[in-house]
Amino acid sequence: MPEKETVRLAQIGLGAWSSVLANAVRKSTRVDLVTCFDTIPEKRKRFVQKYGCDPSESYEAVLERDDIDGVERYPAH
Predict the structure, then answer these.
(1) 50 vs 77: CA distance, rounded Å
(2) In this structure, which CATH number among 3.30.870.10, 3.40.50.720, 1.10.10.10, 3.90.1150.10 belongs to the domain 7-73?
């Protein structure tokens, strides 16, 4: 049986739900959190320190990356 590839994700918006998702990713052997972005630099810094992903400076910068397979976006209210 062939080995399954790892899905590489970006997290956009770092509200409360993003921690739930990041913790689930940590438990997975098939998903990696590669990068994140939030408009609040302090949130972005704390998230990077906690989850070990790369910070991105903008939403557009995330979309320009070629090392992600999907984007999880925390909905704005």
Answers:
(1) 25
(2) 3.40.50.720
